[in-house]
Specification:
528 residues; mainly alpha; Amino acid/polyamine transporter I; 22 helices
Length: 528
């Protein structure tokens, strides 16, 4: 949407039949939620992130910390979904910021999003390679190099990303269901056998200490909140699929809330049972004994409560969980590139969709090519797949997306404030629809469009700033020059984004005026 009337020829160019479009009307709330929950990778978070957060953060207070992060993200979702009800674009963060804070800020958000999601996706190849190689060595009897496993996943993801989104949803649905199932089986076994190693019987030794204020504030709560926030990254990508959603005004908000609630409840309950299974008093010391790889903790619990066979299955599903996250982030990057190519911020070819699949195939192939280059670079230089590739890039991606979430919340406040002031003008201005012009006029509306997003901007911004100050600890090397080099890439992305927006204004001012525009009137449901 635009706050000013647009020239008819510009409007015609933006909606012409020459513009490639995604396959609309294909995804419901549950399908989108599956995709974004896949990006959050629940099994990966519980096996990889939670034990490290317990060790470096607040120990037995991690379940309480997850509840706090869930509450913060639900607060963010209030304004985010209010915007989603009035603005449909696969550009997501970029589109919201461009509409709320104008085009230069939109360009900055666009390139920051590309940096963040590409970093998350490519970094996960390191974890997948290590997990898959470990499974092959321990269960199948051969020991492939990590990079070989990563490139197998890279090839499969390249094919799935090229095809229509329905196929990716089916694959992700199966993988997410399986990873939830194995962890739920472990949860049930811990309840059935009791905590402290399962020697006390049904529901015994299930301590409520993890939800106490003392447990919450033990150790480093700030580090715990940072690691826990990283476990949710991906949930906010619901809006990326808005142009492929059934009734996007309702589907996307429902999917966003569904994803946050499911992930939050799952993380809090599972980590509570993990703490109880070990015992709150011995948790941190035991994790310290597992150094340098405390991520084996969940598998250790699996062996105790489910047996060795279940542990092997869990090891396999850990690898497939990372694969699901890889595919979900690949799809997100492809759609961002499609949106930015369509609007002229990156080469226009990237804004094309496949003639048959209606997928953003050019964006998909570009992301596949970039991932190959980075994988080759880390391989030939002999970098560790987990300590370097995974840790460096996923922490960079998390930081970039945290800043984006704060910026998007500011954009929501600005967007609705501007249109509330133009209510009377809205009816006569065809560039502004009546529902947006009258949004946020009641008490509930002010909460959704002003108060909640303003609070979310402050809280998410504070988390992002603190994460920047602690970046050396987050990548496991407080003395490394990367503690400021990697966060510095976000500033580079911001500058490049502002320059790209300025170049578009000079080259094509009419297209510049339409940056981040609402696309709902262009959607033609696919009935195949």
């Amino acid at each position: 949407m635009s706050s000013a009337p647009l020239h008819d020829d510009a409007r015609e160019r933006a909606t012409s039949g020459d513009e490639h479009r995604l396959r609309s009307g294909r995804l419901g709330s549950v399908a989108i939620a599956f995709i974004v929950v896949s990006a959050a990778a629940p099994l990966t978070a519980m096996a990889g992130g939670a034990p490290v957060a317990m060790l470096l953060g607040n120990g037995p207070g991690i379940p309480f910390a997850y509840l706090i992060v869930s509450a913060l993200l639900l607060l963010f979702a209030v304004g985010y979904t209010a915007m989603a009800r009035h603005h449909t674009s696969t550009g997501a963060f970029y589109a919201y910021v461009a509409r709320g804070l104008k085009q230069p800020a939109g360009g900055a958000a666009a390139w920051t999003a590309l940096l963040g999601y590409n970093s998350m996706q490519i970094g996960l190849y390191g974890l997948f390679g290590a997990a898959a190689a470990s499974f092959c060595a321990e269960t199948l009897g051969f020991n492939p190099p990590w990079w070989a496993c990563s490139f197998v996943a890279w090839a499969i993801i390249g094919v799935l990303g090229y095809r229509q989104v329905d196929l990716s949803v089916k694959v992700l649905g199966i993988l997410v269901a399986l990873e939830f199932l194995i962890v739920l089986l472990l949860d049930v076994a811990i309840v059935g056998k009791g905590g402290n190693g399962g020697t006390g019987g049904f529901a015994s030794n299930l301590s409520m200490e993890p939800f106490s204020f003392g447990a919450l504030t033990s150790g480093s709560l700030a580090i715990a909140l940072l690691f826990n926030s990283a476990s949710y990254i991906g949930f906010e990508s619901t809006t990326i699929y808005s142009e492929e959603a059934k009734d996007p005004r309702r589907t996307v908000p429902r999917a966003t809330y569904l994803a946050v609630i499911v992930i939050g409840v799952f993380y809090s309950i599972t980590t509570w049972l993990m703490v109880s299974a070990q015992g709150p008093s011995t948790l941190v010391s035991h994790l310290g004994e597992l150094k340098p790889d405390p991520t084996v903790f969940l598998f250790e619990l699996g062996g105790t409560y489910l047996g060795s066979t279940a542990t092997q299955v869990m090891s396999l599903l850990f690898a497939t969980s990372v694969f699901a996250a890889l595919l979900a982030f690949h799809n997100a990057v492809a759609r961002y590139l499609y949106a930015l190519g369509r609007e002229g911020l990156v080469p226009r070819k990237l804004g094309h969709t496949h003639a048959l699949h209606l997928s953003p195939h050019m964006g998909s192939m570009s992301q596949t090519a970039l991932a190959a280059v980075v994988l080759l670079l880390f391989t030939v230089t002999g970098q560790d797949p987990v300590l370097n590739l995974f840790t460096w890039l996923t922490q960079l991606g998390t930081l970039a997306i945290l800043f984006l979430m704060s910026l998007a919340s500011v954009a929501v406040v600005a967007f609705f404030a501007r249109y509330r002031g133009e209510r009377r003008k809205a009816a006569a201005d065809e560039a502004v629809t009546a529902d947006v012009a009258t949004a946020g006029t009641g008490a509930g509306g002010m909460w959704r469009t002003a108060v909640a997003p303003a609070l979310a901007a402050v809280f998410m911004g504070a988390v992002a700033v603190y994460a920047t100050s602690q970046f050396g600890n987050l990548i496991g090397n407080p003395e490394s020059a990367l503690r400021w080099v990697l966060p510095g890439l976000i500033l580079v992305a911001v500058v490049v984004g502002i320059i790209s927006a300025a170049a578009l204004k000079k080259r094509d001012p009419e297209r510049w005026a339409l940056m981040g525009k609402d696309r709902v009137d262009e959607l033609v449901p696919d009935h195949h």
